[in-house]
Amino acid sequence: MGEFEPKILAFCCQFCAYSAADLAGSMRLQYPPNVRIVRLLCTGKVDPLHLLKAFQEGWDGVFVAGCLEGECYFLQGNLHARQWVNYTKKLLKEIGIEPERLEMFNMSAAMGTKFADTVREMTERIKKLGPSPLRAVKDSQEMVKK
Amino acid sequence: MTMSDNKIGAVLVVGGGIAGMQSALDLANGGFKVYLVEESPAIGGRMAQLDKTFPTNDCAMCTISPRLVEVDKHPNIEIITCSQLQALEGTPGNFTAKILQQPRYIYLDKCNACGDCEAVCPVRLPNPFDEELGQITAIHKHYPQAIPNKYVISKEGLSPCRIGCPAGVNPHAYVSLLAQKKYPEALEVIRRILPFAAICGRLCHHPCETECNRKDVDESVSIRYLKRFIADKVREKGESLPTPVSITKKEKIAIVGAGPAGLTCALRLREKGYAVTVFEASDKAGGMFTSCIPDYRVPKEIADYEINRIIATGIELKINTRIGKDITLEQLRKDYNSVFVSIGYQDPAKIPLEGSETKGVIYGVPFLRDVKLSRKPDGFGEKVVVIGGGNVAIDCAKSALRLGAKEVSLVCLETRDLEHQDRMPAHEWEIEEAEEEGIKINGCLGPKKVVVKDGKVSGLETTCCTAVYDFSTGTKKFAPKFSCETGPTLEADTLIIATGQRADTTGFDELEKTTFRTIKTDSITLETSMKGVFAGGDIVRGPASVIEAVAHGNEAAISIERYLTGQDLKTGRGEKKEGVPLPERKIEKKPRVAIPKEAPEERRKSFIEVEKLLDEETAVAEAARCLSCALCCECLQCVTACQPKAINHEMKATLREIPVGAVILTTGGDMFDAHLKGEYGFGRYPNVVTSIQYERILSASGPFAGSILRPSDKQHPHKIAWIQCVGSRDHSIGNDYCSSVCCMYATKQAIITKEHESDIDVSVFYNDLRSFGKGYEYYTNSARQHGVMYKKALISNIKEIPDTKRLKTTYLDEVTNTPREEEFDLIVLSVGFVASPETRELCKRLNIGLDTYGFNPAEAGRITNNELRPPGETSREGVYAAGVFTGPMDIPESVMGASGASALAGELLASARNTLITQKTYPPERDVSKEAPRIGVFICRCGTNIARVVDVQTLVDFTKRLPDVVYAEENLYTCSTDTQQHIIQMIKEHKLNRVIVSSCTPRTHEPLFQEMLCEAGLNKYLFEMANIRDQCSWVHMDLPLEATEKAKDLVKMAVNRARYLEPLKEQTFTVIPNALVVGGGLSGIISSLSLAKQGFMTYLVEKSDRLGGNIWNITETINGQNPQEYLKKLLSEAENEPLLKVYKNAQLVEINGSIGNYKSKIEYNGKIEEIEHGVVIVAIGGVEAKPTSYLYGQNPNVITQLELEPQITQITPIKSVKSVAMIQCVECRDEKHPYCSRICCTQAIKNALRIKKINPQTNVYILYRDIMTYGMWETYYRQARELGVIFIRYEIEKKPRINTNEHGNLTVTVFDGLIQNEISIPADLLVLSMPVRPQPDAQTLATTLKVPLNTEGFFLEAHLKLRPLDFVNEGMFLAGLAHFPKHINESIVQAKGAAARAATILSKKQMTISGIIAQVDPDECIACLTCVRGCPFNVPKILKNQKMKDGVITDSGVAFIEPSLCHGCGVCVSACPRKAINLAHYKDSQIMAKCEIYK
Predict the structure, then answer these.
(1) Dist. CA B1193–CA B1203, nearest whole Å
(2) Which residues, including other chains, have CB under 8 Å from residue B799's CB and lie 6 or more apart?
(3) Contact B1005, B999 (CB under 8 A)
(4) Rg of chain B, C-alpha, whole Å
(5) Which of A63, A20, A22, A21 is nearest to A43 (CA)?
(6) Collapsing DSSP states into helix, strand and coil, what is residue A114?
(7) Between residues 1454 and 1493 of chain B, which touch chain A (CB distance below 8 Å)?
(8) Could you give the 3-state DSSP secondary structure of residue B315?
(9) Coil, strand or helix: which one is B1310?
(10) Quick check: B3 pLDDT over 60?
(11) CB distance from B1040 to chain A under 8 Å?
(12) Strand order of the sheet with strand B1198-1200?
C-alpha cells in the first residue's frame, strides 16, 4: 500500500482565496494535488452543516479560506466564517474527530504563495493525522452498495 | 433625446489608470459609448503596481481587479491599448479623434492567454512592471492579472548584430536560445539564412561582433564562437539527414559553382520545390571549404557534414563539369529556366617577380589545395617564406609549419601595425595566432627577386615599402611606393606566393564584366546583363567572406523565384536598416569568455583544430551576456508554439479615426527619476530603491514573492529608512510642489514592513508629516504604535560601505538641532510625481495649456483672472481632465476627479445620451423547470495547457458516465468563438439544460460562458465551471496521474452541483429619473445643477433660508479667485433651471424604498411634501469648530480664520495691525480629535499672504506642527516664507501658551526647536486655525438614511479608495465637507462627481438585480432577529405578516430581505437557526452536493 494521500476540501471565497489559488496557477507554483476547492461568493456563507457534511462524505480534512480580516468584500463574512469554523471544531472534538482536521485561513488575492503554502501545510497536517475515521465508514458503505 | 444638435454620444478617455477606468465606467453606465485609450498594453495604471493601499492596508490588486474585469466586460467600453491620441479635430460635442495604435504583434481576438508562447520565449528582459527588479520574457502579459488578458511582444527595431551580418543572420535569436540551452531551435534559426553554422562558427570574420552594442559596455558577445557551439552541440547529439524535398514546381534551375553562394542558392530554391542542378568544375562540392580551408580551422568532416545536408535535400550535383568546356552557358539557358553563376575566385594572382618560375616557388591556393588532400608539394623545404599579408597567406604559413617546416616567415607590403591605414589585410586574430605559433611577420617589405641557387630557391630579396595605398582620391587605391633602400634578404628553400586570387570567367564571355574582371550584376537583384542569368559570390564581389557569399546565394534565390513567377525583382529590397542603440538600463560589466585553444606548440605539430569546445555552462553564461537590444529577438518560437495562431511579428502601426463628443484626459504622471538626486546614490548603490520598487518588493506577486530582501544579496534587511520629498518640495530641481501621497505611502510601507517582520527597525525621515486626508492621522498614529520611527530631518547624503553594502547617512536632527550619522541596510526613496513628457507632448498637440510643472490644465486654461471654474476643465472646451494629470493626488481624489470629469462630459453631451450604446438582446429563455437535468460537459484542452498534464480523453470518458450527463466532449479552446457557437449547437441538439465548462477560472470566463447560455436560450444560472487549469494542470505539472484524478473530482463536483442548479429570474424595476440632494451649500448646488443640466429632475433640500452655506464667508481663494462671483453665477443658474426645485427651510424627514425607487417626505414651511426619486446625494457640509481655548470669546483680539476672512477685506484695520499670530491645529490632531482638517494651513497661509499684501510691515507668525500644504498649495507656502511670514514649529507636548497684560495685549509663548528655547511674540491679533467639524445634525440624517458615519462624525463612503463618492447603500452618494474637510475646488470636483455617479442610475430606464440574493421563507421564519443582527449591511427587516400557524392566523413578524439591497454574502443564511433563509445559486443543497465525490 502506498503512502496515505489525504483528500481535502477547501471552501474559498471568490474575491480573495479563490483568486489567490488562481494566481498560484498563473505563477505556476507547484503544490500537493490533495485539495479540491468549492467556490463561494463569501466565506460568510459557510455553515457548520457544510463542514460536517464534508466530513460525513469522507473528506480527511477541510479548510475555509477567506479574505484577510478587515478586508472582507462583504465587510464581515470572513469573521462569521471563523466563528463557524471554531464552533464546528468543538463539535468535531465532541464526536471524537481531531479538530485539527478543520482550519480557517485568511489571505488576499495577491497571495498565490500563501495559498500554495496553505495547501502544503494542510496536506502535511492531515497526512500526520491519518485517514479520517469517517472515511472508513464511507468506504464500507460504498462496499455494501457495490 | 434627440440628435438635433449633432452631438455624439461617445467619449474618448485617454489613460487607463484608475481615473480613466472610473470615467469610462461612469460614462458607459451613464449611457455613453466609451473608447478607453491606453498607451501601455494593459489598463490598471500605477495602482496595479501597488502592494497595499493606505489607510486601510487593503490589497491593491484585490480592490482593483474586479474593476478591471468590469471595464473589460462592459459592452459599451472599447479598450484600445498600445495607443496614443495623435490629434483632435472638430468642435465640442463633435470631435474626430485620431488614434495611433502601435503594433502589439498579437491578435486580441485570437490570443487566449494560455502562456504557451511565454514558455518558449528565450529572451529575458528587465520587467518594467517590477521596476526592473525582476525579469520577463519578450512575449509576456503586462502583469499577471492584466486586462485585456492578452499577451504582447516588446519589440524595438533590429539588433545591431543582425544588421551587422551581411546575410542578415539573427545572432540575437540564436544566442538567446543558446542561453536557454535550446540548441536545435537555435540551429534552426541560423539555418533559416545560413546553412553553414558549423563552418561559419569557425571561420566567419563575424561583423556581427563588431556591431554588438555590448562592446560599448565591456566587450562584444562572442557570437561567432557561440554559433559553432550550437552547431557542434546538435551534431554531437546526432540529427538525421534531411529527406529530399518533393519537386512541386515545373521550372528548373542551373547553378554553376558549388561554393557557399551556389549551394545556398540551390538549397533555397530546392526548399521551394524547384528542381535544381549544380555544375561543379572540380570533383567535389564545397568550393573553398573543401578545397582550401585548412583542417585546423575547419575539419574536413565538419565541412562535409554541412555540405551533405544541403545536397541531401535533393539537389542534382554534376561534378567535373566546367562551363565553356563540358557545356556552354547557352546550352544551360536552353535547358534551364534560370541560371545562377557563382564560380568563385580561386585562380592565384601572379605577380611579376624575378625568379618566380624557379623550383620551390609555389602559389598559395594550389598549395592549400594540396594540403587539404594531405599532399606535401614536391621538394617542400624547411625554411618557408610566404609572400602576402592576407588571410590566405597566413593559412599558407600556418600550414607550412604543420607540414614540418622548421622556420616560417611572412613578407608583405603592409605593416604589422594594425592601427595604421596600411595595415595587413589579414584578421588580427589570425596574425596573433600565427605569431603565437612562431611565424615571423616581416611587414613593409616588397619581394624584389627570388634568390636562386642550384636551380632551386634559396631566398628572397626584398625592398622597403613606404606606402601601400593611395588615399588621395578619396578612395583606397592599391599603389605601393618603395624606397630606394634594399630590404633584407630572407633565406628560404620554399617560397609561397599568396598575394591574392583572380577571377577566371572563361566560359561566360557573353556576360558583361567590371573593370576588376568580375561579372557585372545589379547590386540588389544580382541579375547579370543577360535576362534570367544571375551571378553572386566572389565572382561578383571579388574575394570576400563566406557569409557574404551566403548572402548572395539567398538574394539570388529570391530574385530567381521572382523572375520565374513574373514579379518585380526589386520591390521592397535593398532597404538600409539601422540597428537599435545600447539599452539605457544599468548594465553590469562581465568579461567576454576566453575561447580555449590548443597550445601553440601542440598546434604546430598537426592539423588538429585550434579552437576547442567550451563547456556548456560557460557557453550559456557567455550567451547570457547578450543585452537583447531589440527586446524581442524574432526567433519565432512563439509563432510555432501558439496554437490559435494569434501572433504576427509583421504587424505595423495603424491610425484610426473615432468620432466622439468629448474627451477626458487621465494620462497620469511619471515618478520622479531618482537618478537626478545624485547624493542618494540611486542607480549606483543596489540597496537604494525607489518607493515604487519597494511596492514591488512587498508584493506577493513581485520579484521576491513578497519577501523583504535587499537587492544586493537577497538577504533580509534589519534596518530600513525612508527618505521623504525625493523630487518634491525641491526648488533646486524645479519641483516646488508637494506630491501629496508620499508621506502616507511611506507610512503604509513602513507599517507593512513591520507586519511582515516586526524586528526590522524602520525610520521615516520627513520634512512635514502630511496626514491631511481622511483617516490619515489615525494611520500615522497606528504606525507609531507599530514602532515606526518618524525623524524630522532630511538626509543630506548617502554613502555605501563597500564590504557590507550597508548605507551610511548623515543628517541634521531638526527636533534637537544636532547632526547625526546612521547606517541602514536598505533605503527607500519616496519619489514624487512629475508630469510625463508624453503628456506634455500630447497637450501641445491638442493645444491644451499646462502650468510650469506640467499639471493643472484647469488653472492654465483660465480665461479671465478671477473666474472660478470647475477643476477638470481644460483650456479646450469639450476636453476634460482628471487624476494625477491634473496634479499630484491620491487614488480617491483621482477617482472623484474622474467622476467629476464624467459629469462635465455628461452635461455637454446630455442630448446624445443613450444614442450610441448597444444593448444585447437574447432569444427568449427556454423553460426547463419541468425537465429532468440534462447536463452537457465541455472539457477544454487549452491548447496543451491542460492536456499536457491532465489526460483529457480519460476525463471525457469518465464524465460521460456521471449521473445526468447526456453529453461530454473535449475542445481545443473552449473559449474561442467557434467553439462557443458549436456549444450552442450542442445545447440545442442534445436539449441540454445544464452546462458545465471544465477549463480555467470562472473569475475571468464565467461571464463569457453565461452569455453563451443566454444566446442558446438558457438561463445563465444553469451554468457551472470546473477549474482544471489554474487550480489543477498549472499547479501539478509533474503529476499527470494525480492531476487527472483531481480533474475527475472537480468535474464530478461540478456535475453534482449542476444537478441542483435552478434558473433564477433577475428582477427588473423602473428607475425614477429624479434626484434628491440634501444640503444647499456649494457642493449641493453644484451636484443639483449638474444633474439638472444632464436632464434629471432634481430636488434640493436646504435647511436654512438661503443657498450657499460656508462659501458666503470666503472672500478670496489663495490663488486670487473670487468665490462670491462664482456663487452668484451658480445661484442665478439655479434660479433659472427648470429641472431644479429648491426647498429652503426644509428637512428630509422620512425616506423609504431602495435604489432607483425612493419615496421621501420633505418638511418645509410647516408642510410635508412627498417626492419620488431614484438617488440621494448627501451634501450637508460642515462647520468651523468654535474654540474653547486661548481666551476665545474672552479677548476680542482672539478670532478664528473664518472670522478673519471678512476683516481682511476691510483694509484699514488690518493695516494698523503690527503683529498677527496664527496657531494651527487648535483642538485638532489631538487625542480627542485625531484628524487633520486638511485646509487650515492653506487658509492660514492665504490670510497671511493677504495681510502681507496689504501691509508688508505687519509681522505674521504661523505656529504650526506640520504644514499641510499638499499639492500645488506648497508653492504658496514657499511664497509666504519668501515674503517674510515667520513659521515656528511646535510639538504637541509643548503647545503655545498665551498671556495678556492689564491692557488686554496678547503675548504668545512657544518653544522653538531650532533655537532650543522659548520665544515670546506680541500679537495684536491672535488667529486660531480651527478644524472643520461635521454638521450637528449629521447623525440625524445618517439615521434617517441608514448610512454610516466615521468616528469623527463625517459620512463614511463605501470604500476609502475606489468608492469615495458612494455609500454602501446603493443609490446614495456623498460630496463636500459632509465627507471630510476639503478645499473649494475639491468640493466642486466631488459634487460634480457625485452627480456623475448618480447619473449612472438615473440614465437607466430599468435596472436589474442579481439573482444571487437571500430569500426568507416566511413560513419558517420566527423573527428571532438573528439575521437582522448578523447582516453586515443591515438589510433584513422585520415586517408584519399574517401567518397560518396550526390552523390559527397569527399576526406575527417575519424577516424580509429587500432584493435590491442584498449583497449576497450569505451571512444571514448560515446564521439563521431555523434555516429559513436561502441564498439563491448557493443553496445548501447545491453546496452540499459539491461535497459528495468520495467513492
Answers:
(1) 12
(2) B681, B807, B808
(3) yes
(4) 42
(5) A63
(6) helix
(7) 1463-1467, 1469-1471, 1479, 1482, 1484, 1487-1488, 1490-1493
(8) coil
(9) strand
(10) no
(11) no
(12) B1198-1200, B1325-1328, B1219-1223, B1259-1264, B1286-1289
DSSP reduced 3-state for A90: helix
Interface of A with B in 116-145 (CB under 8 A): 116, 135, 138, 142
Q: What type of residue is B1473?
A: P
Q: Select from B484, B841, B478 the least CA-distant residue to B667.
A: B841
pLDDT tens track for B826-848 = 999 999 999 999 999 999 999 99
Whether the CB-CB separation of B811 and B765 falls below 8 Å is answered with: yes
Q: Which of B406, B405, B403 is nearest to B607 (CA)?
A: B403
Window 129-168 of B, Cβ < 8 Å to A: 144-145
- In whole angstroms, what is the distance from residue B632 CA to residue B177 CA? 12
B1254 min Cα distance to partner chain A (Å) = 52
Q: B1302 in helix, strand or coil? A: coil
The DSSP code for B1029 is I
Lowest mean pLDDT: which of A110-119, B561-570, B753-762, B1206-1215? B1206-1215
Cα separation of B610 and B600, whole Å?
A: 9
- Nearest-angstrom CA–CA distance, A97 and A93: 5
B1433 touching A, CB under 8 A? yes
Name the nearest CA neighbour of B293 among B409, B201, B407, B199: B199
Q: Is B1266 helix (H, G, I), strand (E, B) or coil?
A: coil
* Contact yes or no for B1361/B53 (Cβ under 8 A): yes
Nearest to B581 by CA among B163, B1128, B1165: B163
> Considering only residues 47 to 66 of chain A, which have any Cβ-Cβ distance to chain B shorter than 8 Å?
47-50, 53-54, 57-59
Q: Is the pLDDT of residue B221 over 70?
A: yes
Name the average pLDDT for chain A.
91
- Mean pLDDT across chain B, nearest whole number? 93
Please give the backbone phi and psi of residue B388, each rounded to the nearest 5 degrees, phi first.
Answer: 135, 150
* β partners of residue B1023: B995
- What pLDDT, on a 0 to 100 scale, did the predictor assign at position B1? 41
Q: Which residue of A lies nearest to B1044 if distances are taken between CA atoms?
A: A33
Strand order in the sheet with B407-411: B361-363, B494-497, B383-387, B407-411, B440-442
The conformation of residue B593, written as its DSSP 8-state character, comes to: P
The average pLDDT across B7-14 equals: 98
**CB–CB contact B144 A26 (8 Å):** yes
Residue A27 has pLDDT above 90, yes or no: no
Lowest-confidence pick of B495-504, B668-677, B1330-1339: B495-504
Rounded CA-CA distance B715/A101 in Å is 36
| pLDDT reported for residue B944 | 79
Residue B45 CA to residue B692 CA, distance in Å, equals 13
In this structure, of B429-433, B596-600, B870-874, B1441-1445, the range with the lowest mean pLDDT score is: B1441-1445
| Residues A145, B1194: Cα–Cα separation, whole Å | 92
Q: How far apart (Å, rounded) are the C-alpha atoms in residues B473 and A120?
A: 79
Q: Is B953 in contact with B971 (CB distance < 8 Å)?
A: no
Specify the pTM: 0.87
Pick the more confident residue, B236 or A2: B236
* Strand B33-37, strand B10-14: pairing: parallel
Secondary element (H or E) of residue B197: helix B197-203
What percentage of chain B has pLDDT greater than the value 70?
99
Nearest to B998 by CA among B974, B1015, B1017: B974
C-alpha cell at B988: 440545442
Strands B1157-1164 and B1146-1154: antiparallel
Least Cα distance to B446 among B499, B507, B372, B371 occurs for: B499
**Distance from C-alpha of B1290 to C-alpha of B1314, rounded to nearest angstrom:** 10
Residues of A in contact with B1487 (CB under 8 A): 38, 40, 45, 47, 50
